[in-house]
Amino acid sequence: MSSEHSKPEALDMEGTQTTKGRCMCGNVRYELTGPMFDVVHCHCESCRRQSSSAFVTFFNIDKAHFRYTRGRPISYESSDGVERTHCGRCGSPISYENPRELSIFACTLEDLTLVKPQAHIMVGEMLPWLVFGDDLPCFEQGLHHGKLPVVHGPSNLLPVSVENIRANSARTNAARDHFATESATD
Ligand SMILES: [Zn+2]
Ligand SMILES: [Zn+2]
User: Fold this and answer.
1) pLDDT by residue (tens digit) across 111-144?
2) Cα(51) to centroid of ligand 2, in Å?
3) Which protein residues have their CB within 5 A of the ion that is ligand 2?
4) Does the residue 10 lie in any domain?
5) Residue 8 included in any domain
6) Which domain holds residue 29?
7) In CATH, what number is assigned to the domain containing residue 115?
8) Domain count of the fold of the chain
9) Domain membership flag for residue 1
10) Which residue numbers delimit the CENP-V/GFA domain (predicted)?
11) Of 126, 161, 128, whose CA–CA distance to 55 is shortest?
């Protein structure tokens, strides 16, 4: 209908336009019918492992405003009450979900220019070889843990200790070794 194309700004302001996303191969597709919020770069070890990337960018969406329009991703319970999903065909990470929140990896959006990152989170786990030039607030944990940002701009962070990063990886590596051994004996 032509009216759908005549007032895109008004639709934008109401946050009711439909935004679409997909995995790499297109087997999993979704749409958003409400605004994205809490757009962050996350530096936690779990997001890094799920995406095999140095950090991830995700946004939150009300669960009522999200639906799959094609296919369904495979779900993996990465810890108690936390489901992380990916496409079973191409492997694209899609989401992080706990009982309260639904986070979608931003680079699954069809239009990647829609994302306006607001903060870095979990900066205590940020890799020492990453360099950023932005002035976004940096949080030790998530956005809603009641703490103020430790600095504005990742370049103003104290260097993350390499020992901390190694210790963190060693913990998760050991946990996975244990898991793999248990599974093999089933
Ligand atoms: Zn796919
Ligand atoms: Zn994370």
Assistant:
1) 999 999 999 999 999 998 999 999 999 999 999 8
2) 10
3) 42, 44, 47
4) no
5) no
6) 15-184
7) 2.170.150.70
8) 1
9) no
10) 19-130
11) 126
